[in-house]
Amino acid sequence: MPPREAPARAGAMRLQVRGLTVRFGGLAALTDVDLDVADGQVVGLIGPNGAGKTTVFNAVSGLVRPAAGAITVAGRPAPRAPSGLARAGVARTLQGLGLFPGLSVLENVEVGALATPDLAARALRALDDLGIADRAALPVGALPYPEQKKVALARALVAEPRLLLLDEPAGGLGAADIAELDAVVRRVAATGCAVLLVEHHVDFVMGLCDRVVVLDFGRVIADGLPDDVRRDPAVTAAYLGIEVSAP
Amino acid sequence: MDRFVFLLGTGLARGTLFALFALSLVLIWRATRIVNFAAGAMAIVGVYVGVAVTGVTGSYWWGLVATVLAGGLVGLVVERGVLRFASPRSPLSGVILAIGLVIVLQSLLGIAFGQQHEPVPAPFSDRPLRVGGVPLLSPYDVFVVVVALGLMAVLRLLFVRTTLGLQLRAAAFAPEVARLLGVRVARMRTVGWVLAAAAASLAALLAVPKELGLNPHAADMLFVYAFTVAVVGGLDSPGGALLAGLTVGVVMSLVTGYLGATLAPVAVLALLVVVLLMRPSGLFAQAEARRA
Lengths: 247, 292
Prior knowledge:
Low-confidence stretches of chain B: 287-292
Oligomer: heterodimer
Largest interface: A-B, 26 and 22 residues
Strand content of chain B: under 5%
Largest sheet of chain A: 6 strands, mixed
Structural class of chain B: mainly alpha
Low-confidence stretches of chain A: none
Number of strands of chain A: 10
Largest sheet of chain B: 2 strands, antiparallel
Mean pLDDT of chain B: 89
Distance between the termini of chain B: 46 Å
Number of helices of chain B: 12
Shape of chain A: globular
Radius of gyration of chain B: 19 Å
Order of helices and strands of chain B: HHHHEEHHHHHHHH
Strand content of chain A: 25-35%
Distance between the termini of chain A: 8 Å
Number of helices of chain A: 8
Radius of gyration of chain A: 17 Å
Mean pLDDT of chain A: 87
Number of strands of chain B: 2
């Protein structure tokens, strides 16, 4: 996999997180987290289990109320409720699948772009972009897991978001599917969409992302280019036992 | 044989009413995971309004429209005013609120209108038509079947063909995910209750002329049978409600005709027990939906 070119034409700042602090009861899930994602940029958010990666997503999505800090999307305060996300041009996938079990593949994708005209045609195009248009009429539960992952991705892409939040997009996928996912994310970023992804698969993150942010115990312990982050001793310590190999 | 055909016909006619009422229970179950034990009492409120409107205007049809509208309004008020506050963590909370609602609604109706059975005339003749000497359905039975199946078809189109229907289903299957995608889940819940309550009111209006008449408890047995139908069909399955409704209607009709009316409720409950023993999630439950 060739390294992504550094975003020569890095666009305007799409997502800006400043001093984000989230507490669950007495437990600080996130402490003073700063994070930036520019248009066309792919940023990876990594860290050991329980580091607070998904909590960042939930705060950006309006699912959890921060105790302190500011989150802006394209310069405006992030929606305080998830229902405002789509209007703000934000789409996210969920850890696991988060599909609608009783709906067909096409219908699952349609829910991702409710406000747009030509819903069905648009959803079909999104499926076609990921090569699963022929599955459109099937009940979503009938698909194998990697294809269900694609449905979830198509549902996030169908609204043509300006900021895409991917929660463990490579989870449970094999090497071939991950390579395909890598190509899709590059394609999406090339259209100017800002991408923030949470992922355990370190090789995938290091190969794909322009920048990598490492969380540990709710704090940012590293933020930089993949190669720099990889060599950071604090990161190695946090990942003790997890080998960070060269791609 | 003539007798069998007649019983089959009336059973199917009755079954469509059970199916329509059961569909109301299924819609609410899917949207909120609450078995609406107040469905009968709520529906009867709509029927009282409809009968009053018929009394004032002299037109059955205005009364029918008023029943549906009033039923929907009752659904709106009940969802917004009462059941929205049911705890999502405890399935019993919604059930207990609904049972409390039954007591309140039936008491209020009793205070306002009394407990006596008020006859409600059917808009069409209730005498069976004879086809080749064999008594078949009455014109009123035909009317009931057409209206009930028609409404079910309209609801199906709404759910399958429209964006509103897609949102209703998405919100029912995975509310948290739907909310993230911009679906107004609370509003969808309200819409579901309004549709369900309107359908149940219409079913009750259609059923009343075939029963003793209108009183605050007039839909109680309809609710019991519809509940059986919904469980037999699988609480998640609108198609199951239709098929199970027809089955229960025919079983009741045949048992009444051949063994006596007193045995009919027993037969229906026996059917429920057998289904629950063999397929606890109902005959037509979608395994997928259940995991939602």
